[in-house]
Fold this sequence. Notes:
mainly beta; 7-stranded mixed beta sheet; 18 strands; 39% strand; signal
Amino acid sequence: MNSNFGLLFLLIVPFSSAETTKQLEANLTCYGELSFFLNGKQFGRNDQTNITSTYSLKPGTEVLAVRCRNYRHKPWILGSVSNGLVTDTRWKCTSLQEHLKKNNLFWRNPYFDDSQWAQAIAKFSNQEANPWGKVLGIRDEALWISTADENHTRLFCRRRLSDLSLKRAKDSLMGMFQATIDDVDHALLHRPRSQHEVGDVMQCFKKCQGDSQCHSFNFEHDSVLPTRKCELNDATKGQDPVNYVRRPGYTYYENAE
């Protein structure tokens, strides 16, 4: 890789009811200079191209946010988290837009509305066979991601670990339901109340809120269709741990009251 282009990495760690149960590590690399931010403040810098940097994700992490700057080539990022999360097409990415130029601090906020951002595109997995080679310390299934746009110098990418956090804050519902980083790609099976097709996680939340016997729900966060599956459950993972299982593409939420 050429060292004449840079990437700026921003990690946002809000402290709310959606907390991890353990401290995790994020391993990241970039096409140039990597700068790490914790709660909006710079935490570290690495100007060695294609060398993995490791950062601690404290309990309470809800959003990973990345800004990539590359003045010679299209910017891309690659990374993985110790719980199995990787850079892939579930991330939201955009190139630099006018509204971000004017409000370039707001996108870092965990409650920034990224619903209009497109899903990331992926180019290569972290394998020896790809033209950029394998990056040590990052999972093999991690993908180099960017936007479909060409000829841009800045890339903004976000990965929301709790899809409900933005909507919950806007509607003064903080603390009513929660999903931790460990609940991504998990679901509670065999405890159905009802199943629905919804447009977003807030609609699924309202379905559960309207059912007095709903104690948790599974939301299909990874879908190319305009609607997502919403499955209401009559129990929580604590009440039925046997049926709380890994389920890629879904996130588990439970009533925190």
